[in-house]
């Protein structure tokens, strides 16, 4: 308990219990650490929590196994064959916006290296490939008045090559590279964009639709809105109206999505028979302090702003009550008479509601949340009213914002099932990065995919979530937006010092490919299979610090070592994984 600390008197409390020295009764109150220590004693250490244990089993038949890229991140050829400029061309060419002055001028040169990309996909043995269309490559000024035939041919050829390789396309209409010409007239802020997006979608459905069964209208409206129009960290780099602009932009994105879905539904669905939806990104959030109700509410608000903002109008009708309440409350706190969140008309609510064919989810990590009262501050962040941090025992990766938290994916999937009436879900992105020296033995990525995909399997088998597909981000190391080429998410390494930009498989390629071949994690007891050849730290026995341990013990050792390590040094994941060489092992 807190006690007298010699020369420091009562200044510092070392206790598991707080002692109130102002109260003559000296009452003791257990701190969080007391509860924590109690659990350590009860468990006699740090056993692997139930929800981190792996299970055996397979996904449904015809499960979509995919890998993803996006046009600006891989294509290059920024001025070839009549392509128009996008807001990302302009943004990366603005000094100071991107790490190391990187641009997508060349990127992975996928515009000229289609065969290499197809070969990479074949090696992974994916059933699907998710890529996006560069709007200004096909419609240079954003309108259908002028079509750049060469750009359209590129995508035609890509679709033909994919289908010839027996890989089905998943096509994103908008992965952030808006034609600069449309930004010049206000971009997503100007509601005429709704008509432009509708025409663009119509044009793509008509020209590419016969070869495409899966469409995604928008990739991550949250990131477009908040990073592009609140923080200014992404193109178009706006941050001057963080109180109103995100809601105007968001309003137009939702309405644009709905119009594109209706065009497909009215004109193309009968003949083409595909699916059209939107992809939203969301972290999972846990309360920072599990003993505080406010922290649960903050965690809920995190997920609500990531998902509910977009998905509630589209899946349930109208803006989410929680988002409405948050923005209204903060608007009133700033002396406004009404909410800064625009309202949909009753006709719009009806028109938007139901414009989905599946739930597209991008997910990378979880966070811990707690509330913050911003007073009368008029800002998107104040509306959300939370701060997020990560737990320092969570494994680090090549990106500061991304900690390995596999448990969160299962919880998020279950949340989506319950909140949005059990829709079919496609995970349209999930993956991990590294930075620094190149090491093709990407043990951390194998571990990430193993743990996250196994949590998806639990969501399917144990929680009955209707999960129909999984997509690994990314096929290639590519332009990671604001941080340029410094953070590498690829299954394939792209050597940027070689002008040929060769793609080399990292170790995770054969691992992911084995999961695909096995359609999950079949029980080795039912006979040896491809995965049993691979290192699976969570299931098979592994070599941990020279000792042969059962997987659970090793994982416990791993967690404990990490907890200690991380306190001592802010080492990278690479340092840490070097400590536990995972060796291939065979069952039988
Ligand atoms: C997805 O965004 C994107 O769809 C994809 O294009 C991207 O490459 C991938 O994930 C990996 O990031 O540097 O601290 O300002 C996920 C959302 C957007 C989260 C960029 C991290 C940068 C945060 N990501 N963001 S920071």
Automatic annotation (TrEMBL):
Oligomeric form and interacting partners: Homodimer.
Record-level Gene Ontology MF annotations: lactase activity
Organism superkingdom: Eukaryota
Keyword Phosphoprotein: no
Active site: 429 (nucleophile)
Family: Belongs to the glycosyl hydrolase 1 family.
Keywords carried by this UniProt record: Glycoprotein, Glycosidase, Hydrolase, Membrane, Transmembrane, Transmembrane helix
Keyword Nucleus: no
InterPro entries reported for this sequence: GH (IPR017853), GH_1_N_CS (IPR033132), Glyco_hydro_1 (IPR001360), Glyco_hydro_1_AS (IPR018120)
UniProt GO BP: carbohydrate metabolic process
Gene3D superfamilies given in the database record: Glycosidases (3.20.20.80)
Name the UniProt record assigns to this protein: Lactase
TM ranges: 562-582
């Amino acid at each position: 308990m807190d006690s007298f600390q010699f020369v420091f008197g009562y200044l510092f409390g070392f206790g598991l219990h707080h002692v109130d020295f102002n109260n003559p009764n000296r009452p003791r109150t257990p701190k969080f650490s007391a509860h924590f220590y109690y659990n350590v004693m009860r468990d006699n250490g740090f056993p692997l929590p139930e929800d981190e244990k792996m299970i055996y089993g397979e996904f449904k038949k015809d499960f979509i196994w995919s890998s993803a890229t996006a046009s600006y991140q891989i294509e290059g050829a920024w001025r070839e064959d009549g392509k128009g400029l996008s807001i990302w061309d302009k943004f990366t060419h603005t000094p100071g916006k991107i790490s190391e002055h990187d641009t997508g001028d060349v990127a992975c040169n996928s515009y000229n290296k289609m065969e290499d990309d197809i070969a990479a996909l074949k090696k992974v043995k994916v059933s699907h490939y998710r890529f996006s269309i560069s709007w200004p490559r096909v419609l240079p000024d954003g309108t259908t008045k002028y079509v750049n035939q060469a750009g359209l041919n590129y995508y035609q050829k890509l679709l033909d090559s994919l289908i010839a390789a027996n890989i089905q396309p998943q096509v994103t209409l908008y992965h952030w590279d808006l034609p600069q010409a449309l930004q010049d007239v206000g971009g997503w802020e100007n509601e005429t964009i709704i008509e432009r997006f509708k025409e663009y979608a119509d044009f793509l459905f008509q020209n590419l639709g016969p070869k495409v069964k899966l469409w995604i209208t928008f990739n991550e409206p949250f990131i477009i809105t908040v990073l592009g129009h609140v923080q200014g960290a992404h193109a178009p780099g706006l941050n001057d109206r963080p109180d109103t602009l995100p809601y105007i932009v968001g309003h137009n994105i939702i309405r644009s999505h709905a119009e594109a879905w209706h065009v497909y539904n009215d004109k193309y669905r009968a003949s083409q028979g595909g699916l059209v939806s939107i992809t939203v990104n969301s972290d999972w959030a846990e309360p920072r302090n599990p003993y505080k109700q406010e922290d649960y509410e903050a965690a809920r608000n995190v997920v609500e702003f990531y998902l509910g903002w977009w998905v509630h109008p589209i899946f349930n009708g109208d803006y989410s009550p929680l988002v409405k309440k948050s923005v209204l409350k903060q608007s009133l706190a700033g002396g406004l008479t009404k909410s800064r969140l625009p309202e949909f008309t009753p006709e719009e609510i009806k028109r938007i509601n139901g414009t989905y064919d599946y739930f597209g989810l991008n997910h990378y990590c979880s966070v811990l949340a707690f509330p913050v009262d911003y007073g009368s501050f008029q800002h998107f962040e104040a509306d959300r009213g939370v701060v997020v941090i990560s737990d320092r025992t969570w494994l680090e990766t090549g990106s500061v914002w991304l900690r390995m938290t596999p448990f969160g994916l299962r919880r998020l999937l279950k949340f989506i099932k319950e909140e949005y009436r059990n829709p079919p879900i496609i995970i349209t992105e999930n993956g991990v990065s590294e930075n620094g020296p190149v090491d093709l033995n990407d043990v951390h990525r194998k571990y990430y995919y193993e743990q996250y995909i196994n949590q998806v399997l639990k969501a399917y088998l144990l929680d009955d979530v209707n999960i129909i597909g999984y997509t690994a981000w990314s096929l290639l190391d590519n332009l990671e937006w604001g941080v340029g080429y410094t953070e590498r998410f690829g299954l394939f390494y792209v050597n940027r010092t070689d002008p040929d930009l060769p793609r080399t498989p990292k170790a995770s390629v054969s691992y992911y490919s084995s999961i695909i071949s096995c359609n999950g994690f079949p029980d080795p007891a039912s006979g040896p299979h491809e995965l049993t050849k691979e290192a699976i730290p969570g299931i098979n026995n592994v070599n941990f610090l020279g000792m042969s341990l059962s997987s659970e013990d090793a994982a416990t050792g791993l967690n404990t070592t990490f907890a200690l390590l991380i306190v001592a040094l802010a080492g990278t994941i690479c340092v840490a994984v070097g400590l536990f060489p995972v060796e291939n092992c065979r069952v039988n």
